[in-house]
Design brief:
- Among the domains are: about 5-45, no CATH class; about 55-120, no CATH class.
- About 60% of the residues lie in helices and about 10% in strands.
- It has 7 helices and 3 strands, in the order αααβαββααα.
- The termini are far apart.
Length: about 180
């Protein structure tokens, strides 16, 4: 959920907790306390418009995850000028963010990281099938365990990939060898 949406939602719940009637007021207060606690915030944080920035550290595993993490931080901070740098020890990034920006960046990264991993896996399958790199492991009727929709997505992805005209080593050495 985007940072502004989280704040807006929490502020609405806070208003309901103050002005609500009976059980509505009680439930809103309970929900507000639970959400504030889960995001590591206080009611004062909602009122504060000029929050202090502090160093936040994020970890990643691969170059692609690092690129995704940077994009999530930029989106959460709502600027392309993020103060920070690489942390000693590698595979970590430290940046100056408000608490709310940190929560948003963590939320975005946590949401998009598994999606990226799945899409990269799909891309590899499509790439390998397109260039016939896995003819033994993937039968012509499709890899086992994939649904019809997944197979259609992979087929569309394969069609979007660039055609290759790789000539095998044996054919390069002996032009009379016919390709498979």
């Amino acid at each position: 959920m985007p940072k502004d949406s989280v704040i807006r939602k929490l502020k609405k719940i806070a208003a309901l907790a103050e002005r609500g009637v009976g059980g509505e007021k009680k439930n809103a207060r309970y929900l507000l306390d639970r959400l504030l606690k889960s995001h590591g915030l206080t009611i004062e944080d909602l009122d504060s418009t000029d929050q202090e920035k502090d160093w936040c550290e994020f970890s990643y595993r691969t170059r692609t995850e690092k690129d995704l993490l940077i994009q999530c931080i930029i989106r959460a901070a709502n600027t392309t000028e993020v103060e920070g740098g690489r942390y000693r020890g590698g595979r970590r990034i430290r940046v100056m963010l408000t608490k709310l920006q940190q929560i948003e960046a963590e939320s975005l990264y946590g949401y998009y990281r598994p999606l990226l991993k799945q899409e990269m896996s799909n891309l590899f399958l499509a790439f390998a099938a397109k260039h016939r790199l896995c003819t033994d492991s993937v039968p012509d009727d499709g890899p086992g365990g994939l649904t019809r929709d997944q197979l259609l997505r992979l087929a569309r992805l394969m069609q979007s990939l660039k055609d290759s005209s790789y000539t095998g080593t044996r054919r390069q050495l002996n032009p009379t060898v016919k390709p498979k």
